Amino acid sequence: MMSTRRSSSSSAMATAAAKRPAVAEGGGKATTAAVAAGQQAKKRVALGNITNVAAAGGRAATAAGAGKAGNAKLNSAASVAPLKKGSLGSGRSASTNRASGVKSAPTKPAPAISRHEVAAQKESVLPPKVPSIVATAALAPAPVPCSSFVSPMHSGDSVSVDETMSTCDSMKSPDFEYIDNGDSSSVLASLQRRANENLRISEDRDVEEAKWKKDAPSPMEIDQICEVDNNYEDPQLCATLASDIYMHLREAETRKRPSSDFMETIQKDVNPSMRAILIDWLVEVAEEYRLVPDTLYLTVNYIDRYLSGNEINRQRLQLLGVACMLIAAKYEEVCAPQVEEFCYVTDNTYFRDEVLEMEASVLNYLKFEMTAPTAKCFLRRFVRVAQVSDEDPALHLEFLANYVAELSLLEYNLLSYPPSLVAASAIFLAKFILQPTKHPWNSTLAHYTQYKSSELSDCVKALHRLFSVGPGSNLPAIREKYSQHKYKFVAKKHCPPSVPTEFFRNATC
């Protein structure tokens, strides 16, 4: 009996020792603090007091925990990591090789010499005499068939309707010299000059076109619409139904939108700053449990829709947040977190029954209409449309647009814009940040988003201010999230101070 008690006592002591950090005999306080910080980092810090919003350190209670140590370490590593640049395309290297080959050839015609000097040098210098017509066929480009009528405004750089270079003038060019007096050196010099000029025209055309595409500001392209729904082999893309699906989502977003003035008309104890703190904390929870982005967007949608018709106390705002995330996780996730885990992330501020009661209240008020079009639904399609005929890196454009769209979740004033407009504006701003001199909008994006560039002006400017200024030091979750290597450090990209006004002008034919 004594041995049984002794074994149970020793096991209890071992369990207690495993739960508590060991203390050094020498009184090492640094070691104790490090072990305690390491164990607290494993636990998600609760939101804490959400009422201290007006103070400068509005999130001091939340950030006071040692759980931020891991994030600080991640941010320091992310800031030191260099940003790699993509290598140049093979087309530029081929153009460089072609240019070096052209520059090695002589470009000046041979100086005129007398007939006697030609006779003296003919035996030692000149190759065997070749008829002029053979040299012409060997060096001159093959002519393209064209009509016998030549436009008086035709120049050497003109391009025909079918995008082929017109070479009708090569048969009657005044620069080409036919010499019948046997002066072969002048013939070869003329042919060499003709060949060099043809090559130089092609080289300059490629270089100037590439330079124009990269550096010069260009207006909105009046181009043809690229086909996006043409992949019928991938069943997840739903190529045959994609257009109808997104037309239905555009109609549904007007019915599932929250009120844009519920803070002024409904809520008396909650303000936009408290809402932003709650969403910033929910971003950290979603990252902790690796939830899909749609879960986060749906959570914010449920919160705003519930606040649009129900007055709530600020002490229960975090309870509403975890209940809405629980519902969204059940709707979207394959393996949703349990109720006890959401109680744990609030540091057991709320009991299990309270979370379930709030969940039932939200479901009843929303009438179990959980399907709601969010900005993420439209952003997924708009990114695919933008990548069809875009030269920007695909991942940088996608991550940057996602970053801008998630920043919009924090801003209460952006609820006045429909989710599809926010998604289109995020694509507009992301393309502008990646290529500030190029018009971000084109006919393909205007067709599939059903928004003209002029309709995006106000929302793009609001997102631009949010991107440039940032949500503040007390709301760092989204910026820290997209400052990681897996998101290509898009949160650290430089944004121009303003968007040119001409980018918001619609294209005119």
Automatic annotation (TrEMBL):
Compositional bias annotation for Polar residues:
90-99
Gene that this polypeptide is encoded by: LOC102705853
Q: What protein name is recorded for this chain?
A: Uncharacterized protein
Kindly give the PROSITE patterns that the UniProt entry links to this protein. Answer: CYCLINS (PS00292)
**Looking at the record's lineage, which domain of life comes first?**
Eukaryota
Q: Which organism is it from?
A: Oryza brachyantha
What InterPro entries does the record point to? Cyclin, Cyclin-like_dom, Cyclin-like_sf, Cyclin_A/B-like, Cyclin_C-dom, Cyclin_N, Cyclins_cyclin-box
Regions of biased composition (Low complexity) lie at: 1-18
Q: Which Pfam families match?
A: Cyclin_C (PF02984), Cyclin_N (PF00134)
Region Disordered, annotated ranges:
1-38, 83-113
PANTHER family linked to this entry: CYCLINS (PTHR10177)
Listed GO MF terms: cyclin-dependent protein serine/threonine kinase regulator activity
Q: In which family does this protein belong, per the annotation?
A: Belongs to the cyclin family. Cyclin AB subfamily.
